[in-house]
Amino acid sequence: MKKNHILIFLAVIIFAGLFWVLFGNLRKQEGPINTSPSPTAQTFPSVKQVEIKEVTEKYEVSVKYPQFQGLSNPQAENNANDFLEKDAKDYVASFIQISTSQDFLSELDLKSFLSVGYEVVSLNNSFTSIKLDNSEYAAGAAHPNSFYTTFNYNFKDNKQIVLEDLFNPRSDFLPTISALCKQGLKNQLESQGAYSEDWVNSGLEAKQSNFSNFTLDKEKITFIFNSYQVAPYAAGPQSISIPYGKLKDLNDKSASLKIITE
């Protein structure tokens, strides 16, 4: 009986040893267990719309502007939001001051109005490009004044994007942009019967102030020309898009452009 107990005990030890050897080899084949945390999922920014709305006997205001959320650079998010908020509030305050200071308008059965909307052309964690659609009317004027403004922001470097940021340092990019826009607008305005060479040449003279209104996406820059800059009011605002490839000799060393197109 004692001999049987010894044999059973030895069998258990042998079985345990075989199990340990087999299990150890299996673990080696599978490789070490990865205990490092999984990478954090990429966050995508979004936009919350804010509206300033006011209606009185003398004027109506409806100004909408974007506020960014969820950016990977919180400081840039705050700075961009602060700029857009201040710009909208300052615009409204200026409009109200003018609308309430003209006493003679109280005799007219007319209201002044201010309306602002926007379009998000591009938005990611690197940059944003916003087009704002402004329309204002002073009671008694012949017609409303409608125009576009733009807001371009580099979130990585935490600064607004100006035109020269998109080109190589000290490159003479304005004559090239001017020539491309002139050609595009000639075709565009001729089809509308609104082309004037003198008007276009004056509005597209190769100086930065003529090309400061633009939007950006990953493939192209779009210049916006408001009424009266390149054509009569009746022709309305005009825009010309230029693919970055047409400007590659002037922008291949631009760090800001690399951020936009990556």
TrEMBL record:
Record domain DUF3298: where: 164-244
TM ranges: 6-23
Superkingdom, taxonomy of origin: Bacteria
Keyword field: Membrane, Transmembrane, Transmembrane helix
InterPro entries the record matches: DUF3298, PdaC, PdaC/RsiV-like_sf
Any single Pfam family the record assigns to this protein: DUF3298
UniProt domain Deacetylase PdaC: residue ranges: 52-146
Record's protein name: DUF3298 domain-containing protein
Organism: Candidatus Nealsonbacteria bacterium CG_4_10_14_0_2_um_filter_38_17
